[in-house]
Every structure is written in structure tokens, then in C-alpha cells.
Design a protein that fits this description.
With about 45 residues, the chain is an all-alpha fold. The protein has two helices and no strands. The protein has one domain. It is about 80% helix and about 0% strand.
């Protein structure tokens, strides 16, 4: 089961990197949404 988690985690980190490098983080609402998504990801691990 663990072996399937890593690729998804890496994909999530890559997505987060693209999101941060983009302009989405300039929106406070989008930023808060991103933080909530990160927190949800950590809680699911």
C-alpha cells in the first residue's frame, strides 16, 4: 500500500510547485484553498 502513496505525493508536490510558480497564490482565496488542500493531504497520510 505504501508503494502507491509516493507517486501521488510527488505529483502533489509538483502540482503545488507549479501553483506557487504561477499566479494562483496571488489570490488570497486561492492561497487559503491551497493551504487547506495541503493540510488535508497531510492529514490523509
Amino acid at each position: 500500500e505504501k508503494q502507491f502513496e509516493q507517486p501521488y505525493l510527488e505529483q502533489g508536490l509538483a502540482f503545488a510547485g507549479d501553483w506557487i510558480n504561477g499566479e494562483g497564490w496571488l489570490s488570497e482565496r486561492a492561497f487559503k484553498s491551497g493551504i487547506a488542500a495541503v493540510q488535508a493531504l497531510h492529514e490523509s497520510l
